[in-house]
Design goal:
heterodimer, A: 461 residues, mainly alpha, Amino acid/polyamine transporter I, B: 128 residues, 3 domains
């Protein structure tokens, strides 16, 4: 199903040009930056061992997300990903909220990427003797340039991501090999590991930033409407993406925890680049500088792609002003949505501290994962196996949904420990936005158009 | 059975602008209010150490000291990072209120969505 929008009286649709490699690059490209920055705040919240436990528990959470998402996305293959799923399975208000989760998770992640890139350029500039280098111009340039790239076209955008992501991933592999993990020549875990400084409460607390290792992998399904074979490409791209990230996350933790005091690692902005600095190897420093720059660019690039498509989909369905639902007549991109979200990303990248921006992104993601656990149960209940054609059927249902809900609940508590105010502020925002939608915006929504799949009537309705 | 059809009103350009601005203000307000009121980031406390001017006083062993120095730190510049700790003490009432807000939010979503979804299904498939 390819949906279209009318521009100048002509039906124009998004192009189906992407393969499984692009899906992998979109997912991993957004997330791989989580190995280059942000994950290490989990060390600050609970210590190094806690961060490793958080890494694996979060890996379990995301495995559940990938399993569930692959089934639903390969069946509801439309732009907007989870947003389109919510429209068909739960209802318009949930879809509106899911759309907002996606937009905020990705726009905040985009802002975090720009902050990191600016900081890195400033650090390297200072090391090179340019002490007057400021990070702000680089933050602005990054966001504007990538928005322009997205404005120009999806194929070029994601092909660029494929190259950047591959180089950033190879940089982690080379660093891992270069520190000789089989010897104590450079790494000294015995002297640097510090047990659990906050006890087991710190392990739970660190799960908050543990999500950052993988946050955004579900972005693969945002491209559902532009993938050549969604039923094959989406599960394949998402699952290989999770495996890639599990490997990269473990290697990242091993290298950094063997090189840095935990108090530094827990607050560092660019931990992998710092790890390279501690090896005293100039080639490694250059490589990890390039890797950090590429991973932040690839991530921000993918974030703009995903956030704008979610915003576009909501505009097309009139959940937002229909003006946002336009496709560019020649570039075939959701250009108005891309442009509208630029100032939002700029404001946060310019004024908010990195850990706060990351927390907003994580919270938006967390709300989305909570929804997914309910969503798949409703999906199976409304259309039991055999009643509709599924591209992929995830095993052990409903166990992944239950595990996901339990882990999400624990993560809410983890966020509450230290960042409870943001948690409540975000929820109040979503409540107000929901009331606004239900009592005002919903009047503009065409009811029947919200269900476009060729499925039978859902059971119970 | 004939499908009931709802024809939504056409929204004016001004109305679209107001709706866009409302959401933008709501987003910036919700996300920046905790930062502006300095309520974000939770409580941190300073760990008491023997001596903030020496690595040993800050509880750093020889390997840790060497790595701090490679990163360009002295005991003075590293002290605030080393002694900073999260304060995980919390009030059970605050936790309960937060839990109620989360559950209440999702309850609101599912209840309103259900009534909207019924309208969608009835228009798409007809009334039962």
């Amino acid at each position: 199903m390819t949906q279209s929008t009318a521009v100048h009286g002509e039906k124009i649709s998004l192009l189906r040009v992407l393969g499984p490699g692009h899906v992998w690059a979109l997912g991993v490209g957004i997330v791989l930056v989580g190995e280059y920055m942000g994950w290490n705040f989990a060390v600050g919240k609970g210590g190094m061992i806690a961060a490793l436990i958080a890494c694996w528990v979060a890996g379990l959470l995301y495995t559940c997300v990938a399993m569930i998402d692959s089934e639903v996305t390969s069946t509801v293959a439309a732009a907007g990903g989870q947003y389109a799923q919510a429209k068909h399975i739960v209802g318009p208000l949930m879809a509106f909220n899911v759309g907002l989760y996606l937009v905020f998770a990705y726009t905040m992640l985009e802002a975090a990427n720009a902050i990191t890139l600016g900081y890195l350029v400033q650090t390297v500039g200072t090391m090179a003797g340019f002490s007057d280098v400021h990070d702000k111009p680089f933050i602005v340039l990054t966001i504007i340039f990538l928005a322009w790239l997205n404005y120009r076209g999806v194929y070029a955008t994601l092909t660029v991501n494929l190259v950047l992501t591959a180089i950033a991933f190879i940089a982690i592999l080379i660093l891992f090999a270069a520190v000789k993990p089989w010897s104590n020549e450079l790494l000294d875990h015995k002297a640097l590991l510090n047990g659990l400084p906050y006890g087991w409460l710190g392990v739970i607390a660190s799960l908050h930033f543990g999500l950052w290792y993988y946050l955004g992998i579900e972005g693969t399904c945002q491209a559902a409407e532009e993938v050549r074979s969604p039923a094959r490409s989406l599960p394949l791209g998402t699952m290989t993406g999770i495996m890639t990230l599990l490997i990269a996350a473990t290697m990242t933790w091993y290298v950094c925890s063997g090189l840095m005091p935990w108090e530094y690692l827990g607050q560092a902005v660019t931990p992998l680049f710092d790890a390279a600095r501690l090896t005293n190897s100039m080639p490694l420093m250059v490589l990890l500088f390039v890797g950090t720059v590429f991973s932040t660019l690839a991530s921000a690039n993918g974030c703009i792609n995903d956030a704008s498509r979610a915003w576009f989909s909501m505009g097309r369905d009139r959940y937002l002003p229909i003006w946002f639902g336009a496709v560019h007549p020649t570039n075939r991109t959701p250009y108005r949505s891309i442009v509208f979200l630029v100032p939002v990303a700029l404001v946060f990248a310019y004024f908010a501290p990195l850990d706060q921006v990351i927390t907003f992104s994580i919270l938006s993601g967390l709300l989305g994962y909570t929804y997914m656990s309910f969503n798949v149960i409703l999906f199976r209940r409304k259309w039991p196996l055999g009643t509709i054609k599924r591209g992929y059927i995830h095993p052990f249902h409903p166990l992944p949904a239950i595990v996901l809900l339990v882990l999400c609940s624990v993560t809410y508590f983890a966020v509450f420990l230290g960042y409870g105010t943001q948690l409540v502020a975000m929820l109040v925002f979503f409540m107000v936005a929901s009331l606004w939608f239900h009592f005002h915006r919903y009047q503009y929504v065409r009811r029947g158009d919200q269900f476009t799949m060729q499925w039978p009537r859902p059971q119970g309705y | 059975m004939a499908n009931s059809h709802y024809e939504p009103p056409k929204q004016s350009t001004f109305g679209q602008l107001i709706d866009s601005l409302f959401l933008l203000v709501l987003v910036l307000g919700a996300l920046f209010t905790p930062l502006y009121l300095k309520l974000a980031g939770g409580g941190k406390v300073d760990l008491a150490v023997a001596d903030k001017t020496t690595w040993a006083g800050l509880g750093q062993n020889a390997v840790q000291q060497a790595q701090w120095e490679k990163l360009g730190f002295t005991p003075d510049t590293a002290a605030s990072m080393i002694t900073s700790r999260f304060d995980y003490s919390f009030n059970v009432a605050e936790l309960a209120v937060t839990a109620i807000v989360i559950v209440g939010y999702f309850a609101l979503l599912f209840i309103f969505s259900r009534s909207e979804y019924r309208e969608v299904i009835e228009e798409r498939f007809g009334k039962r």
